[in-house]
């Protein structure tokens, strides 16, 4: 997992320990998965990002939109 995220093993370990403390991930054997709390945060973030994307697209003129 650390390699895929381009961070050191120690860094990934610290990140996962912090996420466990915050109840954002759960560990079963050697598999980490998101908790319901984390899933809600991800969904909330998607709503915010989608809103920003719509605002960005609406601000483009026709030429900018076709180049985008």
Share of β-strand residues = 5-15%
Strand order of the largest sheet: 1-2
User: Which outline best applies?
Assistant: elongated
Helix content: 55-70%
Largest sheet: 2 strands, antiparallel
Number of helices: 3
Describe the structure concisely for a colleague.
The protein has 3 helices and 2 strands.
What does this structure look like?
The protein has 68 residues and is mainly alpha-helical. It folds into two domains: 34 residues, no CATH class; 34 residues. Helix content is 63%, strand content 12%. The chain is built from three helices and two strands; from the N terminus they run αββαα. A two-stranded antiparallel ribbon has the order 1-2. The relative contact order is 0.08. The mean pLDDT is 95.
